[in-house]
Specification:
Strand order of the largest sheet of chain A: 3-4-14-9-10-13
Order of helices and strands of chain B: EHEHHEHHEHEHEHEHEHHH
Oligomer: heterodimer
CATH topology of the domain at 3-134 and 202-246 in chain B: TIM Barrel
Shape of chain A: globular
CATH class of the domain at 3-134 and 202-246 in chain B: Alpha Beta
Largest sheet of chain A: 6 strands, mixed
Number of strands of chain B: 8
CATH architecture of the domain at 3-134 and 202-246 in chain B: Alpha-Beta Barrel
Strand content of chain A: 15-25%
CATH class of the largest domain in chain A: Alpha Beta
Helix content of chain B: 40-55%
Chain lengths: 386, 263
């Protein structure tokens, strides 16, 4: 199997028992049209050329693979950091959004609708909308707007309309519901630019394909092939993109969830936001509210491909607490001079905890994706450390 | 005769079954009972609020079905449950449909299970003797519409508008053409729902289809504290509006009007 083909497209919209297209009838034709458009685009060399050009001249790709020399020495491992924090707009979210904006343009859509948690996907979407001359409507939970004010300001500066969502936990889960409602009402002119490997088919697959550039670049950049590949997981797009580059290698794949939003670790199968996957829910089937210091991981579900990778044993999933993530962010900053996002800090925290234990023996080579930079989290951190 | 299917969120108040009885007394032909879900993707503000209120009261599927069983002897109209996939699949569709049937619920509407995902649920519903109602939307292409109509049971639910449930000032222009398209491919009744907010909307929609589902306009009243007696009056007004469609419009006229809209 070639690298490009590793992690195949889902059969019938499913990854094993997970995935599917559980959406209102009003959205089914739009999902089907998107799938067709994506298949055509993905087979079209011109589309790939345009995407490659945008990645290089606009988004700043390839992003660096940085050896974490101090931490490596301290921990007795070889740690390499895939630097998505260096991508334009400050996170891996731009990879997916540029691909979807090109698709939306190809489909003749004039407006992008998106949900956002930490605001990184919202900023990326607002950015692409500005670049492509489209309107952007971003749904964001009121609680997330308060803790990620900087990103709200950025989105508005880019010309996007940010709509506060006041229902439920006022976080990513509710923003996703509201974005899908917004899409139902505007399905003919708007493209739903979904930010993670979640949602109805074809999104989990399409988003992973646009994010696999992370894993493919990292694989080509790494002088030594890693024993372990690790990334944080909320919906799971940076992890899915990273894993895609290594799925056909012998590397262990480790996804790190926030302890308060650990759908793989504490959930059971269910259906929400258009897909079947592992979900935090009560015994009646009501979806539970996640609780994480990291807005991007504060989500009760996980992408269906992760549920499948977990069920088949190809990937493993661990959890990290808020305190561990905050401590890891500080240690990475002081050791390597890199302030990563709170989301990414979960992956760092797992490495710090596991290094030197049977989970991650001394001498291991580890590739870790830093999904984004931490600027957006400074207010939250200042509140925690005061 | 044109049909009226009013909606009620199960468990919205302690005495919620009194509203059911009021709906029935006011002339409902069937009643849709919402089983509240935490993340109702296709619902607008009113039904979201109604669901949240019911959930905060501790309403569960079990409790709602138990309440229904208690008034079962007094309910003579068919009951349809409306809820979301996760509640249906939580213990498996077989268990869920059997529980509905045992509580006297004869139909089921699950807006986030489109026809492509309906195989397992459809079989489970049929085995339990429950009608699985499928929904059609203005954007549904013709071939798919025929499949939906062929696989739907009980009636076909025509979603009048591209949007969520919720009150609107005008009946959507997409309602009548959609109803006509569905009626052309099925003998099942075609009920129009979403945005039927006023008696005049009900009259217009009932002309185009075989009847209407009214949800948000009634649930807003319940949320505002209206009593079962007051809801009885509201449903009676809708009953009169729906009946008016029966009386005033000969079938060929209705057909001509619909054809005009399509063109």
């Amino acid at each position: 199997m070639t690298v490009l083909e590793s992690m195949a497209p889902p059969t019938g919209g499913r990854f094993g028992d997970f995935g599917g297209r559980y959406v209102p009838e009003s959205l089914v034709p739009a999902c089907a049209a998107l799938e067709t458009a994506f298949r055509e685009a993905w087979a079209d060399a011109t589309f790939h050329e345009r995407l490659a050009e945008l990645r290089s001249v606009y988004a700043g790709r390839p992003t660096a693979l940085t050896p974490a020399t101090t931490l490596s020495a301290d921990l007795g491992i070889t740690l390499m950091l895939k630097r998505e924090d260096l991508a334009h707009t400050g996170s891996h979210k731009i990879n997916n959004v540029l691909g979807q904006a090109l698709l939306a343009q190809r489909m003749g859509k004039t407006r992008l609708i998106a949900e956002t948690g930490a605001g990184q996907h919202g900023v990326a979407t607002a950015t692409a909308a500005a670049l492509f001359g489209m309107r952007a409507t971003i749904y964001m939970g009121e609680r997330d707007m308060a803790r990620q004010r900087l990103n709200v300001f950025r989105m508005e500066l880019l010309g996007a309309e940010v709509i506060p969502v006041t229902a439920g936990s006022r976080t990513l889960k509710d923003a996703t519901n509201e974005a899908m409602r917004g899409w139902v009402a505007a399905v003919e002119e708007a493209h739903f630019c979904l930010g993670s490997t979640a949602g109805p088919h074809p999104y989990p697959w399409l988003v992973r394909q646009f994010q696999r550039v992370i894993g493919e670049e990292a694989r080509a950049q790494a002088a030594v092939q890693p024993d372990v590949v690790v990334a944080c997981v909320g919906g799971g797009s940076n992890a899915a993109g990273t894993f895609a580059g290594f799925a056909d290698t012998r590397a262990r794949l480790v996804g790190v969830e926030a302890a308060g939003g650990a759908a793989m670790t504490h959930g059971r199968p269910g259906i929400v936001h258009g897909y079947r996957s592992m979900l935090l829910q009560d015994d009646q089937g009501q979806i539970l509210e996640a609780e994480s210091i990291s807005a991007g991981l504060d989500y009760p579900g996980i992408g269906p491909e992760h549920a499948h990778l977990g069920a088949t044993g190809r990937a493993e999933y661990a959890t990290v607490t808020d305190d561990e993530a905050v401590a890891a962010l500080g240690r990475l900053a002081r050791a390597e001079g890199i302030i990563c996002a709170l989301e990414s800090a979960h992956a760092v925290a797992w490495v710090l905890r596991a290094a030197g234990t049977p989970e991650l023996p001394a001498g291991s080579t580890v590739l870790l994706t830093l999904s984004g930079r931490g600027d957006k989290d400074m207010a939250t951190l200042a509140g925690v450390t005061e | 005769m044109k049909r009226l299917y009013p909606y009620l969120t199960g468990g919205i108040t302690e005495d919620w079954t009194d509203y059911l009885l009021a709906y029935q007394e006011a002339g409902a032909d069937a009643i849709e009972i919402g089983l509240p879900f935490s993340d109702p993707m296709l619902d607008g503000t009113t039904i979201q609020q109604a669901s949240d209120r019911a959930l905060r009261r501790g309403a569960t599927v079990d409790a709602i079905l138990a309440d229904l069983a208690a008034v079962r002897d007094r309910i003579t109209v068919p009951l349809f449950a409306m809820t979301y996939a996760n509640l249906v699949f939580s213990d498996g569709p077989e268990v869920f449909c059997r529980r509905l049937a045992e509580a006297g619920v004869s139909g089921l509407i699950v807006p986030d299970v489109p026809v492509d995902e309906a195989d397992g649920l459809s079989a489970a519903a049929e085995a339990a003797g429950v009608d699985l109602v499928l929904l059609a939307a203005p954007v549904t292409p013709p071939e798919r519409l025929a499949e939906i109509a062929a696989r739907s049971r009980g009636f076909v639910y025509a979603v009048s508008v591209l949007g969520t449930t919720g009150e609107r000032d005008e009946l959507a222009g997409t309602a009548a053409p959609l109803a006509a398209r569905i009626k052309a491919v099925t003998d099942l009744p075609v009920l129009i729902g979403f945005g039927i907010s006023r008696p005049e909307h009900a009259t217009t929609a009932a002309r185009a289809g075989d009847g209407v589902v009214v949800a948000s306009a009634l649930m807003r009243r319940v949320l505002d504290g209206a009593t079962p007696g007051e809801l009885l009056d509201d449903v009676a007004a809708l009953r009169a509006a729906v009946d008016q469609a029966d009386q005033e419009v000969p079938a060929d006229h209705a057909h001509a009007e619909v054809s005009g809209d399509r063109g």
